[in-house]
Amino acid sequence: MTTVTDLPAGYKDIPEEDRKKANVFFDRGRTVADTGNYEYAIEMYLQGLAIDPDATDAHKAMREISMRRKAIGGKPLGMSEKWKLKKGEDKQNMLNAEKLLAYEPGSVEHMHQMITAAQKAGFYDTVLWLGPILFRALMDMPKNDQAKFNRFIALKDVYKAIGEYNGAIEAIAQAMKLRPDDMDLNGELKHLGAAATMKKGNYEAGDFRKSLRDAEGLKKLLEQDQDIRSMDALGKAIHEAKLAYEADPNDLGKFSKLVDAYCRTEDLEGEAHAVELLDRKYNETKQFRYKQRIAQITMQQDGRTDRYYREQIAKNGSDAKIKKEYEEFKHERAARELKHWQEMVVNYPTDTTARYELGKRQFLLGKYDEAIPVLQQVRNDPKYRVLAGELLGRSFLNAGFADEAADTLLQTIGEYAPRGDEKSIGLFYWLARGQEEKGDRDAAIKSYSQVAQWNFSYRDVQARIKRLRAEAKGTGPAPANA
Fold this sequence. Notes:
It is built from 23 helices and no strands. The protein has helices at residues 16-33, 38-51, 56-71, 79-83, 90-103, 108-121, 124-139, 146-161, 165-178, 183-198, 215-225, 231-247, 252-263, 268-285, 288-315, 320-347, 352-364, 368-378, 385-398, 402-415, 422-437, 441-454, 461-472.
């Protein structure tokens, strides 16, 4: 068995006491993820990883959460959030890269940053977990250019630095395919081969002190973690998960793996199998989490349908029939999601995300009197203060409370620091609408003017400014074609 003295220089062992402290955050992250609040779950895992940075099970769980977030349309981290990332030593650099990767799980750049920082910080278990994922991502890069070559060389150097010579050999072998005439690479490959032969045993991915890493295990890991999976790999994963579950139908972990395997197909047939399993489990246990998972699958399907309609409208913008179908679909989708978020609030009454999503659907469906008290409550959470504030102001406006709408939007603008971005432009536009509605023409002109200075083509801002200025001059409404 490998001992501490056998480990390469620089390996950082995490004390058992720190591992226990970190588990508190990991447990919280798992609980939060089950509610669908993926961003908060990611933050919980990152806080735990700040204490135990080499917890590979936590890295795996957070990547799974990031994949689920991506599947429902989650976007990369915004620029303002990127600026907030703390700059620090190698451990902090690794955590920064991992947060960026969680919001953009297919990014080779973030994978490279994370694995390099992990190696420098001495978190070798993390290197061995992430290495195969990065390797497959590099293999899937379409171009055989300098960037791809450099990435393989960098991965080789990371593996070499921790004494994982087989991984280094795999990486340099791919680099040599891109530079077959490079004699220096050929010479280094021989040295790495000799080093691998002298070294007895390999380290297990996920635990640097144990011996595993056979070729079949690596192949399965690559198939599970690659961002773009082949249908053969998906079919095999379903078959294996089904056999495992049928052998032990009371194992909830195996049940979840089978459901996930069906969902990865991203087709209606596979998802129908998943829904059938979940519905059966819900009827057996009456546990809401299974009903929640069904709703998540439905929302993923609706997301694909929404993308289809937007693509069709982009291609056939003048087709009135497609536009009408899309509007009908959006209304039906909002109604389905309203029911889901109502159940979420009942089952998770302290979950602010669920309340915000409920208020948003009530707004989309024109249920403004219902949305207003929900959004007022949500607005107390700093995380949703601006988002809920905008919807609250617009709900007041649509419900006929112009004064309340203008006051709410003005306060929300004061709570949102950026200026000139899409969010602030929208806030100023709806503020102007509220000011116009309550008869404060001068204030409305000023707010509309600010919008026009940022984005002259925004909505109908040009026409509104012209009309209000014409009224102010006493010349009546501006001509329609002005």
